Amino acid sequence: MNILILGSGGREHAFAWKIAQSTLCDNLFVAPGNAGTALVAVNIPVSYNDFDGVAKAALEHNIELIIVGPEEPLVNGIVDYFESRADLSKIKLIGPNKAGAQLEGSKDFSKNFMQKYGIPTASSKTFTADSLAIGLEYLETLPLPIVLKADGLAAGKGVIIAEKHAEAVEAFNEMLVDGKFGAAGNKVVVEQFLKGIELSVFVLTDGENYKILPEAKDYKRIGENDTGLNTGGMGAVSPVSFADSNFLRKVEEKVVKPTLHGLNSEGIKYVGFIFIGLMNIKGEPYVIEYNVRMGDPETEVVLPRIQSDFAMLMASTAKGTLNDFDIKISPQVAVTTVLVSGGYPGDYEKGKVITGSEKVEDVQLFHAGTTFNGNTEVVTNGGRVMAMTGMANSLENAVHKSQRAAQVIQYEGKYFRHDIGMDLIRYND
User: Could you give the angle at the alpha carbon of 112 between the alpha carbons of 106 and 113, nearest 5°?
Assistant: First the structure.
């Protein structure tokens, strides 16, 4: 098969790295890709939101399968676009259509969906500018902290956890009155704060059948011990020690099966990944959010643990024969540490020369925000720059491998967290 991956981050490099190992893959392309994907595939300089450009590239390169990495093209309807054109009808896409992508594209839709199909989640109410006064009154009745979510996509910045009522009121007004998140904040979901341990479970479905992939825990805050601003993710660990077989069985029965039943009941044929953000509260799963693609940096720990042929897994998903596929999972622990640009998640500079990649040993290095300076030097091109994934028979050794590799890479302003996985080591003790 000729396969095209859409995206340019660490998730897409992980996809490309895994698929390049398959005998099923003849030619592999990534649009637009990064300096890492260029090592295992051919980068195509096309934006994943340029549907006409993606279609043209797919036809030119005889693409049979497209794996959509980020959420934005899915929410914008790339699957519907391909289905609407007769000349593209033979090309299969891994990713839901626009109706299915609402699970991530609209927090209000996903909360109503969970309530309708009895999926455990935090209690919530949705407000618009027209119901501003009612919303402000509602905020005063809630216990602290209070969670406020912009309804639409806000580049991972649309969730506010207010520790004081005054902060909640300020954030509420900023979204609905000041338009802080643009159209994404035209509706605001206000919900109960859930206190527990967070993790992510990943489901792959062909529309009828499903497979549950390895679970993971990521580290969202910029600072050690989960302090400071939220980021796209500073590291991840898989498997998760506090998610035992009993808990994961509850996730399957109380969350996964009702979610897939709900999608079928709504007439939505959902093909692709469902990333379920969960809270483990005293052994019970509660859904924080749905995402309609794989997570980043979680993909960088989930894919290395999948021992089966990943291209064949994707092909089975596209064909609707996922039930016949046997996924083999490594029992080893995977830990990834993310290197970021100085100043991230605020303002940061690009174009810093990266050195030391050739000295990295015993880990898988995934490029995220990188590009080429001319034809030779690899330079920074984003907030999150690289992810170092170490695998070992113990969490301690996987952490050591990942952290040691993070120290080897050099560029001006480099920063990474030194405590990825350490909370789980303490939890195990």
Answer: 85
